[in-house]
Amino acid sequence: MSAPFAGGAIRAYRAERRKLHAQLSTRVLALVCGLGPLAFGAVLSGQSGVPGDTLLGGWVHSSGYAFSLVVLGFAGYLGFPLVAGALAGDVFSCEDRYGTWKTILTRSGSRGEVFAGKVLAAGALACALLALATASSLIAGLLFVGGHSMVGLGGTVVGSGEALLLVLASWLLNLPGLLGFAALALLLSAATRNGIAGVLGPLLAGLLMQLLALVGSGTWMHFLLLSSTFDDWHGLLTSPRFYSALVLGTVVALAWTAACLWVTWRVLRRREFAGPPLSRRAGWVAPARVVLMASGVVVALAALGNVGPTGITSQRLEASMGRVFERLTLLQQRELGRSVPADAKLNLRTKCQRHSGQTSGPGDDWTCTMTVVSPLAGYEPYQLTAVTYDVSVKSNGCYKAEAPPTFVGQQTMVDAEHRSVVNPLFIVYGCFDTTGEAPRCAERAGCAGSRSGGTPVNGSGAPAKAPSAREKASTRQAERSSGGVVRETERSERELEQSAKGKKSSEESTQLNLGR
Questions:
Q1: Which of 9, 122, 333, 334 is a good FRET partner for 199, with 20 to 30 A between their CA atoms?
Q2: Is the dihedral angle over the CA atoms 208, 209, 210, 216 positive or is it negative?
Q3: Those residues with Cβ within 8 angstroms of residue 274's Cβ, 6 or more apart along the chain or in another chain
């Protein structure tokens, strides 16, 4: 880059930055990013409800860092595309609307300098708004909740200092995706010469990408979506952590940004600005062509939804769910004041399946049954305790699991210090790597990742002695019969539901007879 070009690009950047700062939309975005998390925190602090459907939403009243990540989850859904469109969607089209291209190119600089200045100004403001939202969410979380330790997506407790670093890194990892949507807004602004298309285009594109993420079970199409880069931070909060999705998402976001900027430059370089402006009569041909092209792209992407390896499998879910359930169970026992060794483990068997009978794919119809084998004294040396969770799994490998309160208790509980705290087992959040090698599990018993190593725990929370050969044989027999226990539990629940329905219909008929 030559010195004259750099100087012209810097002058164009300063001029464009002043124009963006003077716009009402930029000021509104700054107020929303700065005051929105504070208002959200103030509303949540005054009520006991939680956004349970969002990752870590059940912990917003326990840790300010979890609150910041919940705000990040909302922003990554449709907030960042909206910010990118409102910020960069009118950067090029405003010159067409006011007819100022000739003045700029004859008095300010060349096309390349003007293009570079506008791109730098939009990118710099996008970074500034992201930093403002990060600081505001952290301040709101620490102010209304506090800087307590946080429970991550792997079931482990993260200290305050480490949680702060993870939250900052998580927000920073959303910057490539935000810049990608900003580049898309610049492309729409230059290609359509219409500010409305540039502002609303990224929002519609983000919505379509969120819908496409629900289609199919393959991983290739899902990773090519720009919106998937907003989920890369999940791998930082699991245990063990995974970085493959993070690296792949960053590469995809940079590719989207480079491609959109290259096409934008090609459009501007070939445009003719000399002579009087061309008056074009509005018609239906151009909008219909754009809609047909966009529909074709969406249909093609939807057809590719099942292409590639399946990222959501029962083996991956069983391994992650069993590991997280074990850690949260031990955390619950420690909060209740029971003595639990540091290397304690549960004798646990996990089995996940879908109501449809499939063993892969995202959906809301997953169920995971954790069967805990506890040692007892007497003729029957082992007791089976089965807990069944209803699990909702997304295509990015993150899930939310809920169980009836009769099994795991209410949303809050009283700890050993007589404080009301969140019940770790009420809602279980977790994520797993959809790109790595699937763990191998037993065909019938399910994953047993939590069995090997450590010190097993009995029902009272104290460490149990090492089992003998006879006890091991009894354990295997108990594991084989665990499937029957689960089926018996499900059968009993169905009988109770049918009995309740019959009782209700009987009461209704009695009321009708009394009415006569």
A1: 9
A2: positive
A3: 102
State residue 440's pLDDT score. 54
Give me the residues paired with residue 442 across strands: 446
Distance from chain centroid for Cα 315: 21
Question: Is there a domain that residue 508 lies in?
Answer: no
- When divided into structural domains, the chain yields a total of 2
Q: Are residues 292 and 334 in the same domain?
A: no
Asked if residue 248 is part of any domain, the answer here is yes
| Residues 250 and 322 placed together within one structural domain of the fold | no
Looking at the structure, do residues 338 and 267 belong to the same domain, yes or no? Answer: no
Cα separation values, 277 from 22, 77, 95, 203, 305, Å = 27, 40, 12, 30, 45
Q: Is position 509 within any domain?
A: no
Its pTM stands at 0.83
Which residues, other chains included, contact 144 with Cβ-Cβ below 8 Å and sequence gap of 6+? Answer: 41, 42, 44, 45, 64, 67
Helix, strand, or coil (residue 32): helix
Q: What is the band of 450 on the pLDDT scale with cuts at 50, 70, 90?
A: very low
Give the residue from 350, 307, 306 showing the smallest Cα distance to 326: 350
Nearest Cα neighbor of 8 from 148, 142, 92, 111 is 111
Same domain, 161 and 128: yes
User: So what's the pLDDT on residue 382?
Assistant: 57
Q: Both 259 and 340 in a single domain? A: no
Is 515 part of any domain?
A: no
In whole angstroms, what is the distance from residue 213 CA to residue 362 CA?
10
Q: Higher pLDDT residue, 126 or 311?
A: 126
Concatenate the DSSP letters of all residues of 365-398 into one string: EEEEEEEEEEE-SSSS-EEEEEEEEEEEE-TTSE
Nearest Cα residue to 438 out of 316, 321, 353: 316
Q: Is the pLDDT of residue 242 over 70?
A: yes
Claim to verify: residue 327 and residue 242 sit in the same structural domain: no
353-398 pLDDT, tens per residue?
Answer: 998 878 888 889 999 998 887 665 555 555 667 889 999 999 889 9
Owning domain of residue 148 = 3-273+286-306
- What would the 3-class secondary structure string for 275-335 be? CCCCCCCCCCHHHHHHHHHHHHHHHHHHHHHHCCCECCEHHHHHHHHHHHHHHHHHHHHHH
The Cα 141–Cα 71 span in angstroms is 10
